């Protein structure tokens, strides 16, 4: 298949690499020069250039506004009728349908297919896809998603994948804060952080955060996670807005949004999501170190 891939960062780079390794012709574009070549892909000169002649175009961009911008400025005019846009970004579901409408006028379909699995999942081809769209479009892209991931869920119509993704991530975001606060209680009381992590990992307090992040990036004080804190804040904001739009009052998630916003303001851009722990430590007092 001829594939265009737009957005070759932490996630998009390895994902596009897997598609090329599976034998597809992949033309990549990113605002960062050299991103396509670094993954052994053909370099497109622009998003429109990547989309020309493509059967399927993937987007893996920071948010739905960026996807809409690329579609409006480039893809709507460049994609051929019958082609398909697959947006893997974690995006605002309320923007997804509008973006699809811009393409529909050209006879181009759209599926939202955000992912879980982080940078390591993208590198290993072990992502989980949660998709919204038409059954026939899902069947068409199934082999492509299989080349990049270990599991695909078709969770509903267009926008459903993006809604599912925000629900997944807001749960993780709240677990980050609650795990940090609870472990700081333990530390102040006299428990050892690494021992607490070992207990949690085989007990009911276990989560993705305790099994995959505490020892790997927090307790060793690395704070190098490839997922940026501002992207998690975006996900928390999407979940809160989605809830408000449904008329729901969500006191804990609203407080969580304020905490993530304050951390983002204090820490500045391009910080690892694990830095949230360090920010919480500063606010509360105490450090999740074994000494
Ligand atoms: P990233 O910042 O590493 O990559 C985004 C890339 O998009 C950058 O290389 C940037 O140059 C490029 N870009 C931005 N605007 C562009 C444009 N108009 N045209 C072409 N390229 C453009 O971010 P990431 O971590 O790869 O995340 C991408 C998406 O995946 C986000 O929506 C994020 O929330 C989601 N996500 C990330 C992770 C993770 O662990 N990193 C996990 C799951 C989902």
UniProtKB/TrEMBL annotation:
An example molecular function term from Gene Ontology annotations: oxidoreductase activity, acting on the CH-OH group of donors, NAD or NADP as acceptor
GO biological process: organic acid catabolic process
Domain 3-hydroxyisobutyrate dehydrogenase-like NAD-binding, first and last residues per copy: 159-279
Domain 6-phosphogluconate dehydrogenase NADP-binding, chain residue ranges per copy: 2-156
Active-site residue numbers: 165
InterPro entries referenced in this protein's UniProt entry, alphabetically: 3-OH-isobutyrate_DH-rel_CS (IPR002204), 6-PGluconate_DH-like_C_sf (IPR008927), 6PGD_dom2 (IPR013328), 6PGDH_NADP-bd (IPR006115), HIBADH-like_NADP-bd (IPR029154), HIBADH-related (IPR015815), NAD(P)-bd_dom_sf (IPR036291)
Pfam family, one: NAD_binding_11
Keywords associated with the record: NAD, Oxidoreductase
Residues making up the signal peptide according to the UniProt record: none
Name of the protein in question: NAD(P)-dependent oxidoreductase
Lineage per the UniProt record: Bacteria, Pseudomonadati, Pseudomonadota, Alphaproteobacteria, Rhodobacterales
